[in-house]
Each structure stands twice: as C-alpha cells, then as structure tokens.
C-alpha cells in the first residue's frame, strides 16, 4: 500500500508539536525523521533526544533514516522509543547484514538506503532479508534539493528483482518528491514516499498529501 511520510526536517523546529499535529490531521501515514551526524553527511540535524520527544506526541508510526557513521549504536534506544522502521546507509557500515538482523531482532523494520552513486547490485544478497529499500533521489544531508532523475532506474531494477524472486520489501523514495516525481517513482514500483519541503510549503497539506497518493 502507498504511504506518505512527511520529513520533519522541513518542519519548524521551534514548533514541531504544531507541525506534527498538522501533518497528522492532513492524513500523513508515518513521520520520516532524518538523523545527520556531520560526518557521514555534511550537516547535523537532530538526534535521539528529539526523536524521543517526537515519539511522545506522534500518533502515527515513525521511520528513522540514519545518515550517520556507526548506525548500529542507536538501535536499542530507537526500539525503546517505539520506532517502527529504521534505515541506514550501505555506504556507512561494514556489516550491513548483521545490522539488518539487529534491527529486526529489536522488533523494527529494517531498510537500507542507497546514495545516488550506489548500485542496486550492492544489495543483491541482502534483498531476501530486507523489509524496505530507501532509494535516495538526492544526495543525503539537506532538504529542498532537486530530484536526481538517474536514480529512477534503480527503482525499476529493484522492482524487477522483487517480482523475479517474490521478495516482499517495500521501496521508499526520498529527496525532491513532489506530485510529478512521486508519480514517476510510483510507476516504477515505489510505494513509500518521503516528502519534506514540498509538503511543508503546501498551503493545504491534506490536498498535497492526497495528490502525492496519486
Ligand atoms: O534524507 C533526506 C535528506 O538527506 C530527506 O528525508 C529530506 O528531508 C527530504 O526533503 P525534501 O527533498 O523532500 O525537501
Ligand atoms: Co530522509
């Protein structure tokens, strides 16, 4: 099923509770929380204390996107906060399969994110065990960037592998997602749509969310 995940990176950090309520009322399915460490990506966003505060007021599930080195160190804490889905970057860990297992053993869905330069073939032996794959359609680190259209082919490729092997993973897209780019990604097989600046700039977020659903 298609799901729309507002990225709170585009929210007003001085009024996150208000923005959470607005997006829930507009029909958001989950919140997407971007953790950036200033090492793996050239920006720092927020970390565990902010996720914990959000988890206490959110009425919908939380998807955490770890853009950090050593992502394994956060898993137990995220479980304690009731997070539903966690993704980490294949480029940021030496032992991605072990980390998938750790996330799942902690009762959360495990996803791997691919930077624009990374090939789907990197995931070939991980796909049977993954709950979702996050295709980055911008370079990670900042909201408000332009969609990189070369990444669309990776969605097509993943969907083909999913069908060929009857795998069950979801395909999430993140970066520059608006009405037009969501439709392009949906046509290729994506079903989880992260949207930050587009949704938070919308005058009518409920209408924007239903348009993103296609
Ligand atoms: O992970 C990231 C950026 O690194 C994203 O989740 C952004 O927060 C999406 O923002 P928009 O591109 O939709 O403004
Ligand atoms: Co993200």
TrEMBL record:
Substrate binds at residues 7, 65, 141-144, 174-176, 196-197. CDD domains: RPE. This is Ribulose-phosphate 3-epimerase. Pathway: Carbohydrate degradation. A divalent metal cation binds at residues 32, 34, 65, 174. Keywords: Carbohydrate metabolism, Isomerase, Metal-binding. The keyword Cell membrane does not apply. Its EC number is 5.1.3.1. It is an enzyme of class 5 (isomerase). Pfam families: Ribul_P_3_epim. Binds 1 divalent metal cation per subunit. HAMAP family: RPE.
């Amino acid at each position: 099923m298609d799901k729309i995940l507002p990225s709170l990176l585009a929210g007003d950090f001085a009024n996150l509770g208000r923005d959470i309520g607005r997006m829930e009322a507009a029909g958001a399915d989950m919140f997407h929380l971007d953790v950036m460490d200033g090492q793996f990506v050239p920006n720092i966003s927020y970390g565990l204390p902010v996720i914990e505060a959000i988890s206490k007021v959110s009425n919908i599930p939380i998807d955490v996107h770890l853009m950090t080195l050593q992502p394994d160190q956060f898993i137990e804490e995220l479980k304690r906060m009731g997070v539903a889905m966690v993704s980490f970057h294949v480029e940021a860990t030496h032992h991605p399969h072990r980390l998938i297992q750790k996330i799942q053993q902690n009762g959360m869905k495990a996803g791997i994110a691919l930077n624009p330069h990374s090939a789907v073939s990197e995931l070939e032996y991980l796909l049977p065990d993954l709950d979702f794959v996050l295709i980055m359609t911008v370079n990670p680190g900042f909201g408000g960037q332009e969609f990189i259209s070369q990444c669309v082919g990776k969605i097509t490729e993943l969907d083909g592998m999913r069908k060929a092997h009857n795998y069950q993973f979801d395909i999430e897209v993140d970066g520059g997602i608006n009405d037009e780019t969501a439709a392009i990604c949906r046509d290729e097989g994506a079903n989880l749509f992260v949207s930050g600046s587009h949704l938070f700039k919308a005058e009518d977020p409920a209408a924007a969310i239903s348009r993103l659903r296609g």
